[in-house]
Design brief:
about 650 residues; alpha/beta; six-stranded mixed β-sheet
Length: about 650
């Protein structure tokens, strides 16, 4: 479908990438990955023809169509949601007008035997057949399914697009691209403005309805659920892995280990050659050999090592006062905007040290309740902030409160204390402010960069209640890992508003679901909640709403209670621990056998009966342990199904 050959892009002395060759085939689900600034967005622009490479070619098969969703785009506001989305079917609506016009002519004309009339009948039949084959009669239903899958309500369809925030307007643009059914979808951070339900719907759409997909995303779960191939931009090259993202991470680590070994061997060879040249440079009898080695040295192509940051950045919140036992108590909290009720009868208590998630579709009140807790907006009911509670609050508007005249480094230096001040550059690097970026003034930073800086600033402040509203939106995967580890180690209370499942996994032990004016408490982690959730993305289902309601109402077979699931997790955890212990024993026995084999290979020890007995005993122990490991693995496989 798309063939890329010998692609090269230069912005400075060092190429962004060069000698890039790959092919995008039908049904490919490609994750385009690489560190920030590697050229991922540039590659997408080149693939869709918005940017030209320095050299090389991008060849598309005849008739190939491309749909491109950039991170930022100009959006028009001259129509309703339905009218704007309908633009995806511009060809079909034009065809429909032609069919209607021809149908009108056939009804009005009476020259049934004329050549012109027969031609009109033929043209009408051909166009109408083509219209039916395209499934054009269903486009209204398809628009409805897509918009609702992306989080819109039917009542939104006839509202002007200018009434919606930028994030919702980006959803409209995404809907238009998906509805146009291009041969190749190029998506740059498509989940940035989506909630969990909409992300799950998009995952299913891409799996069932899309042809070829190339996407850039920092959502690890999304990449794993969608992709079957990974292209990594590294060291100005593109490396093609025919696997999903998680498998790619493992293969990349193995590849880098091989590169390191090859690099070390090459450096050893170079050192030996240089040493020889230096020792015999001035000896006439060695002149030919010296010249030979100099030429060999010149021909050596340096081995490059993939740009992978293996440094582990650990960050801990500074110590603070211990809060009361119940940092947040809500009783019958209600919030209305005019006649619109956002939520009502919200009642829950957060205990000290709990880490919880607020989830639900955008607009259901998650950020609104956070603002109630912060005292930023009025509400009805009782909401008590506990004794000695010191709140650290992160929201997108926090980035606007930074001092624009300070540099990135100064902003963090002003709040850092103790040993942390010695690690400011490391901390900034972990959040993508390495090198010269730390000297940038805040006023020249993009919105995403400001958000990251505000997040670092918060991490260094002594608080005992963290409230984080979409904290991962502008973070890459390593930065998210640093933040997640810091929150895990935090001994205070945490409220996380997030749609990032992988980030929430293992971090929260309770989920509060916002929807339909209610806030419902769910015990367990994010995936426990999602498994119990009744949300089922509808992609191309033709069943009626009555059938769908009946299906939803019917109890699902085999659904476990929370306690049953908790017990299952304990069994799985116990088996995983036993398997790990068994693997450790196997490794020790294999090492012992290897050492005994080496000893027995020595001429004077080959007939040593003590060694032979040890070897036999070790082999028998290894066989027994291998059988034990297989039994444990089978048990784990059975209960994990």
């Amino acid at each position: 479908m798309i063939s890329v050959e010998n692609l090269k892009v230069e912005f400075s002395i060092r190429p962004l990438f060069e000698d890039v060759t790959f092919v995008i085939n039908d049904r490919d689900r490609i994750a385009l990955v690489g560190k920030n600034g590697a050229g991922k967005s540039t590659m997408l622009k080149i693939l869709c023809g918005l940017q030209q490479p320095t050299s090389g070619t991008v060849v598309m098969s005849s008739g190939t169509t491309v749909g491109y969703l950039p991170q930022v785009m100009k959006i028009t506001d001259d129509a309703t949601v339905r009218e704007e989305t309908l633009k995806a079917f511009a060809d079909i609506t034009t065809m429909k007008k032609r069919i209607d016009d021809m149908n009108r002519q056939l009804g009005e004309r009476t020259d049934y035997e004329s050549e012109e009339y027969l031609t009109l009948v033929h043209d009408f039949s051909a166009l109408h057949d083509r219209y039916i084959m395209m499934g054009a009669d269903n486009y209204e239903a398809e628009i409805e399914r897509t918009l609702m899958g992306l989080g819109f309500e039917r009542t939104d369809f006839d509202r002007p697009t200018k009434e919606f925030s930028g994030g919702w307007r980006m959803r409209i643009e995404l809907a238009k691209i998906l509805l146009s059914h291009p041969d190749v979808l190029l998506l740059d951070e498509p989940t940035n403005h989506l909630d969990i339900n909409s992300i799950q719907w998009l995952e299913q759409f891409l799996a069932q309805s899309a042809k070829a997909v190339v996407l850039v995303s920092h959502d690890r779960a999304f990449l794993n659920n969608v992709t079957n191939r990974t292209l990594e931009i590294s060291c100005s090259k593109v490396v093609d892995y025919k696997v999903s993202y998680d498998q790619f991470v493992k293969l990349r680590a193995e590849r880098r280990e091989q590169q390191l070994r090859a690099y070390e061997n090459q450096q050893k060879e170079i050192a030996e050659i240089k040493d020889f040249i230096e020792r015999f440079r001035y000896k006439p009898t060695k002149a030919v050999q010296v010249q030979s080695r100099i030429k060999h040295l010149e021909k050596i192509v340096p081995i490059e090592i993939d740009e992978v940051d293996n440094s582990v950045m650990h960050l801990k919140f500074p110590p603070c006062l211990r809060s009361g036992d119940y940092p947040i108590i809500c009783e019958d909290v209600r919030k209305d905007y005019g006649s619109h009720n956002v939520f009502h009868d919200v009642t829950f208590t957060l205990k000290r040290g709990e880490k919880v998630a607020f989830v639900g579709r955008n607009g259901e009140g998650k950020s609104t309740l956070v603002k109630c807790i912060m005292g930023e907006i009025p509400f009805d009911g009782k909401l008590k902030v506990g004794h000695n509670v010191q709140i650290g609050y992160f929201a997108q508007n926090q980035a606007q409160m930074l001092d624009e005249n300070l540099t990135v480094f100064q902003t963090i230096d002003n709040v850092a204390t103790g040993d942390v001040r010695l690690r400011i550059n490391d901390i900034l690097g972990a959040f993508m402010f390495g090198g010269e970026a730390s000297e940038k003034k805040v006023k020249v930073l993009s919105g995403g960069e400001r958000s990251r800086l505000a997040m670092i600033k918060l991490l260094l402040e002594p608080v005992n209640l963290l409230i984080l509203d979409e904290p991962t939106n502008h973070l890459d995967m390593p930065s998210k890992d640093v933040l997640k580890e810091a929150i895990k180690a935090f001994d205070g209370t945490v409220i996380l508003v997030s749609h990032d499942r992988e980030f929430l996994d293992g971090l929260v032990e309770k989920v509060y679901e916002f929807g339909g004016g209610h806030v419902t408490e769910h015990l367990g982690g994010i995936y426990d909640f999602l498994r119990k959730s009744t949300f089922e993305p509808e992609i191309v289902s033709s069943s009626s709403s009555v059938e769908k309601s009946a299906e939803t109402a019917a109890p699902s077979e085999g659904k476990m209670s929370y306690e049953e699931h908790k017990e299952l997790r304990k069994k799985i955890s116990r088996l995983e621990k036993e398997i790990k212990e068994s693997e450790g024993k196997i490794e020790k026995l294999e090492n012992t056998i290897s050492e005994l084999s080496a000893e027995l290979a020595e001429p004077d020890k080959g007939s040593d009966m003590t060694l032979i007995q040890k070897y036999t005993d070790s082999k028998n122990a290894l066989d027994a342990e291998m059988e034990h490991w297989e039994e444990l693995s089978e048990k784990l496989a059975e209960i994990s199904e």
